[in-house]
Amino acid sequence: MWLLSVLPITRGIAPDALSYYSKEQVPRGALVTVSVRRRKVPALVLDAQDARHAKTEIKRSSFALKKIDGVLSPQFISPLLLRVADRLAEYYVSSVGAVLSDLIPPSLFKGKQIPLTPHLHHKKRDATGAGFPVPKVLQLPYQERVLRYKSIIREAFAHNISVVVVTPTRIEAEDLAEELSRGIEERVFTLTSLTSVGQFKKQWKKAEESREPIMCIGTGNILTLTRPDIGIYIVEHESSPHYKSMHRPFLDVRQVSKMFGEEGGRDVVWGDDFLRVPTLIEHKDHLAEGIVRSHVRTEPSADIKIIDMRRRDTDTTLLPIISEEGLALLTDAHLRGDRSFVYTVRKGFAPFTLCRDCGEVLSCERCDAPMVLYLSHTNKGREDRERRIFACNRCGAVRDAKTLCGTCGSWRLEMYGVGAERVVETLAEHIPKENIFLLTAENASTEKKAKDVISRWKNTHGSILVGTAAALSYLRREIIAESVIASLETLTALPDIGMNERIFRLVSYLKSITAKRLLVQTRNPDLPPLLNAKEGDGQALFRLESAERERFSYPPFSQFIKVTHVGEKGRVLKDLQALKDALPVGTASLYPAFISRVKKNFIAHLLISLPPETWPHPKLAMLLKSLSPAYTVNVDPESIL
After folding, report:
1. Which one of 190, 306, 419, 623 is most buried, by most CB atoms within 10 A?
2. First-to-last CA distance in the chain?
3. Is 533 exposed, middle or buried (0-12, 13-18, 19+ CB in 10 A)?
4. Angle CA(383)–CA(385)–CA(387) in degrees, nearest 5?
């Protein structure tokens, strides 16, 4: 008899291993059927051991072991995927089951029929790289990068090598696939979450069984494609924060790609307009390796003008939302019939509201987050009415705009900050409102709605699009006549890792898709990344950021692990201090979260800093794994706030 540890593939069951038994030996990586809650569901075999070696565990078990119902496939996932899953589970202080449940495309397990891994007929090549020069990094403008990708793919096909291209979002995958597939359409497979379940299974199976080398493009799940002839992974838009998962175990697709390359002897290419500084530091001695030298100076495009908003700060005059120069630029573009874009960091009408009597920020009653003023539309009969509400972007609490200061009871509340809805209202005083379109995560919650907004903006003469970061991915292939960044203050005020890079990328990106002029409104006109972006000088930013990271021991000069604890304030601080004192290696800082209270629970972080190359550390990993679910462990966090 064999004792099996399996991962059920079904909704409603936590991604933890369950125990079953089998009379016959079942290899690790097999797909079996098991009974869970009176349902027969597919399950992956994560581990198998002879029951004779586990008698003690079986006797101590508080439940009776069930027998598996049957074996669907003796080798459903490849040994390579299992090795990578083992390493990822160790790296992210998680279980193999949680890792695999994140990696394997969920579409494969939807519906009645599960596509079993076929017997592969391709000639298996030695895992020693592509066999021809492949660049480690491609820091080039988008169109130049696409040309390099095409060259790499065609060279790979000539050597009977398949290529996997990973993108951070579905939209980018579809756009890039359209560029790369010209002339090789029959060999290109685009697999995204929009692909129907039936079509996904059909295409996945076809991609696995094809006797010719292929290119598969999609988001992180396509890394699990089990073709032995895969020789190159291309990670496009490497700097995107969307590669980092927002839920446990907080996998980073970039790290997953790296481990697949290491375990499979495959090449990994990092591509972007401006790569992350840690990536550039890691590869600074290899920037000329392969077929292209990395560019550190962006190509000239729009003229950038920085508008110093401080000169409008007086005691009697409110700061304008859009400067005179900005209004003139957008009005001229409208009259010429050109399309323009206004970027805002924050959605809503006003990100902050202050009491003019006591100076207190109007905050959520359930958490410490500032309440954001929104314009809410209601339909009563045929009449469209507009009213203002306060909403918390953190916990979702809503309050009527007719409220008083919670500290002093004053009614003298004043709005501050630049929100997208406020920009629309300001522009509507000078330009017909039917020519102004808004695109934020709030008003375009689905891809269909967002594309509808973009379509109406493109088809309207002299139109203006006002949008947040949610709009940027839809503009990747657009050329805009004029652009305005309404404010950078929300970003410059955040003391977070990589904020200088984020500002540089934002300004450089808008510069690259703007044909004529880009105005940047800011109260900090001498900000180094802003000036670097204006000059297109990525080298200067790299020198600044790498020196700062080395000085303060930020990644990659150290390894960060952020442990977050939620609960009663006294208990949280006491528990995190005890954890800090028990650390077997490294140093740690204990501090409240940027928003330290949500739904009356206190939130604090313990940021652990380790010397490079020391993680995973066995003793520290064991300590972190022993923590209760009230703790969250995030390895390589995108933010430390």
Report:
1. 419
2. 51
3. buried
4. 170
Tens digits of residue pLDDT in 523-568: 899 999 999 999 988 889 999 999 999 999 999 999 999 999 999 9
Distance CA 134, CA 220 (A): 21
In whole angstroms, give the CA distance from residue 147 to residue 338: 29
Q: What is the pLDDT of residues 587-634, one digit of tens each?
A: 999 999 987 877 778 999 999 999 988 999 999 999 999 999 889 999
Residue the block writes with tokens 């895992």: 127
Residue holding tokens 């905050």? 363
**482 close to 340: Cβ distance less than 8 angstroms:** yes
Asked if 139 and 190 touch (Cβ cutoff 8 Å), the reply is no
CA quadruple 588, 592, 595, 598: dihedral, nearest 10? 110
Distance CA 462, CA 335 (A): 6
Other C-beta atoms closer than 10 Å to the C-beta of 115 total 20
**Which residue in this structure is represented by tokens 């609490």?**
397
How far apart (Å, rounded) are the C-alpha atoms in residues 157 and 215?
A: 9
Q: Are 509 and 273 in contact (CB under 8 A)?
A: yes
**Tokens 């995030």, located at residue:** 634
Contacts 24+ apart (CB under 8 A), 306-311: 306/519, 306/520, 306/522, 306/525, 306/530, 306/534, 307/519, 307/520, 307/521, 307/522, 307/525, 308/522, 308/523, 308/525, 309/487, 309/521, 309/522, 309/523, 310/523, 310/525
Q: Determine the distance from the C-alpha atom of residue 401 to the mean position of all C-alpha atoms in its chain, rounded to a whole number.
A: 33
Q: 10 Å Cβ neighbour count for 133?
A: 13
For the four alpha carbons of 473, 189, 242 and 299, in that order, the dihedral sign comes to negative
